[in-house]
Each structure stands twice: as C-alpha cells, then as structure tokens.
Amino acid sequence: MFDQPIVMLDFETTGLSPAAGDRITEVAALRIVDGVVTERFATLVNCGARVPYEVTALTGITQQMIHGAPPVAKVLPQLLDFIGTDVLAAHNASFDAKFLLAESQRQGLSPQHRGLICSLKLARRMLPGHSSYRLSGLAHALNIRYSSAAHRAEADAEVSTRLLLYIGERLRHQYRCPSIAPSLLEAITRQSAVKVPAFLRRSFDSGG
Fold it and tell me: Yes or no: is domain 6-205 CATH 3.30.420.10?
C-alpha cells in the first residue's frame, strides 16, 4: 500500500508537556510494510517520574509497574534504532514527536526519521463529517476494534495503524493508484480540507 515503510508511534506519558517536566511511561512502535505490521517494539518505561493518579485512572499504568520497567536510558536508544530513518506516524503526531525529541535530547541523541505523518490531521482532511477525531471516536465510527484497553501504547498504535491503512485504501480505491508515497500523506495534512480534493487530483494526474 505505501511505497516506503512507516513506523506508527504511540507514547503514554505522565502529562501533556515535556517542557513542564512530564515524561514517558510506555511506548509502542509498529513498522508497516506493504500494508502489514512486520515488526513491533513495545515496553513500559521507567523515567524516574511520579505517575499521577489521573494518569493511572486513564491508562491503568501504576507507579509499581513503572518501577519494574526498563530505564529510559536503555529504552530510548533501542527505540531510535528501531525507527531508524523510516517515516514516522502518530495520531496527534506533534504530541508524540515532542516527547520523542525531549527524551532523546536528555541523552544527547537525535531522532533520524525522515518525515512525520499525523493520522489525526489526515483523518480530518480525508474523512470529513465525523463528530470526533479522537482516536477512540474514529475507531468507533469506522468499526475498528481495540485488541485491549484504549490508552495503552500498543493498543493505540494498533488502532492508529488500522486507521492509516483505512485512509490509504480509500486513496488507492478513489484514485486507482497501486501505492501511496508517505510524502503525499504528509502533503495532504498541510492542505486545508476544502483544497484536498483538487490537490489530490493534481497529484495523481501528475503521477504523484
């Protein structure tokens, strides 16, 4: 479906902002090749941070679970090695990207992924008319089932992957193209919703 591998990323965290001291508690990364998840990286993460009660209530991730998890100094290099130079994707990608960058900078490391696709922005442009573009809302509307509880990294990454594949199939069917370039998905998210149909017609007419 996609002409290059894409790695779908999801973090669970102690809060919304690494600039405010929030840290990651869990990560999942799934590599998508030819429309199939071929590899996965998933683990809880010990960043030495306190897990707020409201985060435990939402995710089920407890302080005890974090204490027993691998340290971030071990997890982050492994995660960056797993991602490599593939294109990265996430639902509300700016959130995951800022945590990836912040945790990497703490260790003097630099992510090397080539491109970032936001499945939330992509869904807003390719699937207009939904009442909610939260991952759980789209999953319900599109009959995408969670394999386990929502708000856990691997389950959310799996649903985000199925959403991305759904959008990819819709593009392939509508424009009769054998494969989709990740760069095209990135470009779609930079368009306003009303301009997307004309943009896609131009892109596919020109062989994009």
Answer: yes
